[in-house]
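Researcher: Following up on the earlier apo prediction. This time include the ligand. It's pyridoxal-5'-phosphate, with the SMILES given after the sequence.
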Amino acid sequence: MTTRSHASAIDACAEGDINLSSWRKQRMEQLSDPETRWLLAEDARLFMHQSLSTPCMDVVEKASGTMLQCLSGARLLDFHGNNVHQAGHAHPAIVQAVKLQLDTLTFCPRRFTNRVAIDLARRLVRVAPEPLSKVLLAPGGSEAISMALRLARLVTGRYKTVSFWDSFHGATLDAIAVGGERLFRDGSEPLLPGALHIPPPVVPPSHRESPAVEAMRDPDHLDYLMRREGGIGALIAEPFRYSFAMPPPRDYWAQVQRICRKHGALLIFDEMPVCLGRTGHWFACEGIGVTPDILVIGKGLGGGLFPLSAILADPALDVVGHTALGHFTHEKSPIGSAAALALIQVIEDEQLLLQARDKGQRLLDALTDLGQRHTGIGMVSGIGLQLAVELVNTTGRPDTRRADRVLDHCLQNGLSFKIAGGNILSLAPPLNITDTELTSATRILDQALRETNITGEK
Ligand SMILES: Cc1ncc(COP(=O)(O)O)c(C=O)c1O
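Model: Understood. Below is the ligand-bound prediction.
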């Protein structure tokens, strides 16, 4: 059998950091706890190896609030959390709601419905912008993307889509077709036909391309593409690339929406990582003032402890009752719904939207200050409690080597986060993080930047 390795050809992935750097190998070799070493070896022996997930670096034993507690003894502030932790890990009210649900109804077979799933749908519709009032639940984000794409095909009768290069919408075959990451696409072709891509509206300065490519970020290019190509059923995108945390240009989405309508295409927003509070709004689209035809949410929807996603759609699209759109076994999960309802209650009770705005501004100020005191920091940006720090080398290009070293220092000193695009420190703490934790995280980052040097011109 022949096997091919594509990951090695790709040095930077917008979706996350690749676990292949030499210091990660070194750290693993230095781990002294025998049980940790054994479990990591078992993990490598038993699970299929895949980029971005293996090799694993430590074993998480416990997670609560902002903290991850590892078997090796490491305690880490979790600014990564795969963006499921709006309310922090194992929020007591969410855990309690799930425990209560376990005592009543744990699964709902198809053909029946259940009270808690209906309550969740009602609650989601209440917080969603109008006219999004039709809900479909699914067990995971990629499945919800799949449902949204199929709904768009069925409603418009068109199969072609437009999405952004470097985007990520999930790891299933349809999701990677609209996604724009080579790491996921290479070797998996042929992908869905008609999945067209354009450059996203903004990228960090170190990722800018030639003037010809930069010009294609303008909505006029989209208008041209839709007109010349014809038959586009939907444009699917994150309202902003969450890991870069950069607001799109003013009016970008309003213009895109007008163009979509002009050409008969639906607008689908993928808000998986930023829905339910992270931007300081229930949904990021409220912050940019554009309501899509279909809004896809997930990740933290399950309260950080249950896989759950959903599409929220304009009721005018509720016309495909003749076909099965999301025929998933765990569709109206009572447990997932109980977790989601409890999360929504926590967001309201703890005023997490306000906290995301206030603490996001404080963290942005602190990071901006770091940017002024250290060399090699390009852009610092943030939307609510989703923030990003760009590391650039002496020529202004991505300083991927230093980003890797900074992450290493931070992990050793108690802070975990993700690196996007090779050089963007992507920071997403729980929305109820304490001021003391925010200060510790800033101090750890400050120290890591002091102890690592900007990479010289190559
Ligand atoms: C923007 C975006 N869309 C979709 C997904 C896919 O969600 P899931 O991993 O639950 O399938 C992700 C996951 O990281 C994501 O970041």
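Model: The chain has two domains: 58-87+352-451, 92-349.
Researcher: Noted. I'll compare it with the apo version next.
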